[in-house]
Amino acid sequence: MVVQSSPYRAFSDDAFSREGVPVQEDVNDCDIIFGIKEMPKDVFQTGKIYIFFSHVIKGQSYNMPMLARMMSRKATLFDYEKIMDDQGRRLIFFGRHAGLAGMVNTLWSLGERLTVEGTANPFARLRQMRTYRSLAEAEAVLRDIADEVQAKGVPESLHPLIIGFAGYGNVSAGAQEVLDLLPVKEIPPEKLAALASDPSASRNFIYKVVFKEEHCVRPRAANAKFDLQDYYRHGKDKYESAFDAYLDHLTVLVNCVYWDDRYPRLITLEQCRKMWKSGRPKLRVIGDISCDIGGAVECTLKSTDPGNPVYVFETATGKAIDGFEGDGPVMMAVDILPTEIPRESSEYFSSVLKPFIPHFIDADYSVPLEQLNLPPELKRALILYQGELTPDFKYLEKFL
Questions:
Q1: Which of 341, 310, 298 is closest to 137 using CA atoms?
Q2: Which helix H or strand E contains 124, and what residues bound it?
Q3: What is the CATH number of domain 31-83+351-398?
Q4: pTM value?
Q5: CATH superfamily name and code, 95-340
Q6: Which of 334, 315, 274, 262 is nearest to 108 (CA)?
C-alpha cells in the first residue's frame, strides 16, 4: 500500500510516513487506485482498477471523455455512489458532511446578504466553513448566535425567519443538525402559510420546515392521490411541481434532494423571475447542497468552489453575478462541501470504506465478469470491467 504525495490534504505526507505508509509521487505502479472525485484523463493506465466518485451515472457530458478514455485503456471502474445494500441505500457517502458544511455556508450567506441590504443581523458574525479549524469551532459561534436570537429575536424585517429543507436524507440530516444548534421550532408544511401571516409568532425562534415528496409535487390527474412509489415510477409524466405554494414564505431554501430529469423541479427560472418582478421577495438565499446544475433548482446555473462560493442569480438578465449583491437569490452551490471540513469528512469516509477494501484486493480481475467474486454491494457499483460497460450501465452508451 502506498499514498500519493499531495501538499493539499488535511493529513500531510509526514503524517502518513509516521504511520509507516510509504508516500510517493505517483501511483502508476499500483494495480488498484482509490481516489475521491474525477481523475484527469491522462492518469489512467491500461488494465488498472479505479475506485472513485466518477459522476457519470446520469450521463454527465463533462465526464464522458474521461469515461471514454478509461474504456480505451481497458480499465475497471467502481463508483462509490453505487455501492448499495439490497434496499438501494448508499453505503459509502459524504452526505452528512456536505450537509454540515453546506448549512454553515448557507447561514453565512444569509448574514452577508442581509448586511449588503443594510440589515443588522446575528448571522453577520458567522464565517464561511473553510475558515474555521474544525466544525466544533463553527458550532461555538452558532451557539453565540443562538444566545443572541433568544435574547433579542430576529430582525423585525425578517420575521418570521423560515428555513425550508427539501429532502430528508443524509444531506438534510447534516444540514438540520447545524440549524438545530439555534433556537428552532419545526412546523409542518401545511401550517407554513398561517405562520407567515401570524404577527404574534415569536421572534425568538427560527422556524424550520422539512418538505417530503408529497409536499413538493401533486398528481396531474384530477382527484388522484399522491403515491410515493407511483411517483418514483412515473415522475413528471404523472406529477407536477406544487412547490410554488411555499416559496413566497421562505427566507432560505436548502436543497438536499436527489434529482434527475424524470422529476419536476422545485423552482424554475420562470418562477424565480416572477418572484423578483414585483420587488424584493422574502427569499434571500438558496443553499443548493445537492448542486445539480439546472436541476431541481433551475437557477443553479453553475457550481462554485470554496474560494468563490456564491453568486446572485440576476433574474432580469438570467446571469450569475459573483458575490452577494443583485436582484435575485444568493446561490450557495459549492459542489465539494466536505472539503471545507476535511479532517472530519476524511475520518468518517475512511471508516465506512475500510470494511470493503479487502474484497477489492482479494478479487481476481482476470476472470470473466460473471465469475468475478465480489459481494453484491460492490458488484452493483461496477461500471466498467476490463474497459466494457457492465449490463446495468449499458445505457451510458447513448451519452458516450
A1: 341
A2: none
A3: 3.40.50.720
A4: 0.85
A5: NAD(P)-binding Rossmann-like Domain (3.40.50.720)
A6: 334
